[in-house]
């Protein structure tokens, strides 16, 4: 049975979408996307027992044409010449439209706040999703927010270690659900704790978030009459509560968080849409068996029967002649005309 694959190669991990679901794993070849794609497809072939029929992968809208052509050539060298490229914001909008059913001519602003940058794209649905206005990219992402948290915690305790960096990254992710996180820190032979509250965390990252949201505001305002009906948040950093709060206060447009793997899901849907429909099997019409007409049974004619038939014909002709010579009785149908109640007037002849 054929299957389709959607791929989203992010900086923090690779997301794979098939009809069986969405999975995300760490990048195995961060600096070799063609090799990464070839290995993922080989793994799927081993798992499903056959190669995929269609593959689509996302890419940042800001990638130049030369970059895409180089990646295409690298894929050909890896034996993967059938990979379809889909812009990441379009893929996210396709996945959102599949669930929400956007009306024709409606618009969506895709705010992709990922690990390395914040990409803002306005799209308008006209059969397909088309660019509406000029997209914008801000080089601020989740990795930069991680560095801000690490610097803040390091300034508190006066030490730095790889373990501390991992703990700060986990704390940043937990602060989206908890008001406070306690970060364990080993200083010499002593284990200490550093408390980081959500309010403190928001104060640390607010300037960076405001820069990203300002880009979104510029793109929306520049669109003029094509104001988005909804702002779709994509990316891990978009789950930070402060992001939603800032967008709502500054733009006043409904905000929705896309589920994890939305871009990969949209790429999968695009690959499935381009899959040719299976040809219908030819249908042969077999007519129903024809019933043979039964021959009518003829009554044998004998001299006596012939004489009887002749007599009946003669008597019928005589009766018709007598009926034609009878005087005709003319009948006239009249009705009683009623005058005022109580008086009857008979018709005149």
Automatic annotation (TrEMBL):
Asked whether the keyword tRNA-binding is assigned, the reply is no
Give yes or no: UniProt keyword Transmembrane helix: yes
Membrane-spanning intervals of the chain: 304-321
Keywords (alphabetical) are:
ATP-binding, Chaperone, Membrane, Nucleotide-binding, Transmembrane, Transmembrane helix
One Pfam family from the record: HSP70
What is this protein called in UniProt?
Answer: Hsp70 protein
* UniProt organism field: Lentzea atacamensis
């Amino acid at each position: 049975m054929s299957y389709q694959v959607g791929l989203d190669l992010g900086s923090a991990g690779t997301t794979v979408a098939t009809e069986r679901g969405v999975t995300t794993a760490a990048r195995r070849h961060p600096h070799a996307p063609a090799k990464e794609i070839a290995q993922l497809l080989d793994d799927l072939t081993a798992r499903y027992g056959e190669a995929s029929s269609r593959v689509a992968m996302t890419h940042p809208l800001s990638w130049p044409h030369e970059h895409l052509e180089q990646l295409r050539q690298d894929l050909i060298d890896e034996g993967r010449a059938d990979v379809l490229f889909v812009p990441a914001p379009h893929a996210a909008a396709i996945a959102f439209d599949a669930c929400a059913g956007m009306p024709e001519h409606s618009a969506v602003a895709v705010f992709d706040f990922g690990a390395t940058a914040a990409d803002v794209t306005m799209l308008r649905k006209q059969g397909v999703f088309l660019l509406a206005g000029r997209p914008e990219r801000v080089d601020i992402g989740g990795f930069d927010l991680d560095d801000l948290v690490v610097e803040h915690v390091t300034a508190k305790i006066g030490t730095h270690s790889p373990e501390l960096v991992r703990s700060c990254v986990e704390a940043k992710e937990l602060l989206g659900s908890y008001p406070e996180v306690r970060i364990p820190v080993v200083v010499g032979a002593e284990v200490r704790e550093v408390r980081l509250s959500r309010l403190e965390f928001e104060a640390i990252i607010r300037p960076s978030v405001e820069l990203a949201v300002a880009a979104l505001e510029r793109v929306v305002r520049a669109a003029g009459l094509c104001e988005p009906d909804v702002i779709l948040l994509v990316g891990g950093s978009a789950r930070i509560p402060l992001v939603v709060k800032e967008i709502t206060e500054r733009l006043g447009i409904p905000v929705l968080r896309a589920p994890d793997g939305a871009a990969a899901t949209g790429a999968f849907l695009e690959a499935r849409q381009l899959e040719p429909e299976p040809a219908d099997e030819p249908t042969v019409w077999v007519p129903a068996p024809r019933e043979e007409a039964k021959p009518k049974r003829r009554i044998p004619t004998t001299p006596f029967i012939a004489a009887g038939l002749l007599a009946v014909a003669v008597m019928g002709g005589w009766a018709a002649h007598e009926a034609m010579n009878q005087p005709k009785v003319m009948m006239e149908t009249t009705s009683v005309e009623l005058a005022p109640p109580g008086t009857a007037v008979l018709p005149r002849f």
